[in-house]
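hiii, so i know i said id send this last week but things got crazy w the move. better late than never?? heres the sequnce for the chain we talked about at the cafe, plus the structure i predicted for it. fair warning i was half asleep when i ran it
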Amino acid sequence: MKSFLLTALSATFGFIGFLWVASKALHILLYLIDQKIVR
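okay and structure toks below
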């Protein structure tokens, strides 16, 4: 049971981390596109 909780926890954190990285990348991408449109 403990190992299952550990696996679920790590999976959740991994998913949150992935979402955070994806959102950061999206923000950078939108920023770059914004810069190109302005210029």
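btw The chain is about 95% helix and 0% strand. thought thatd interest u
miss u guys!!
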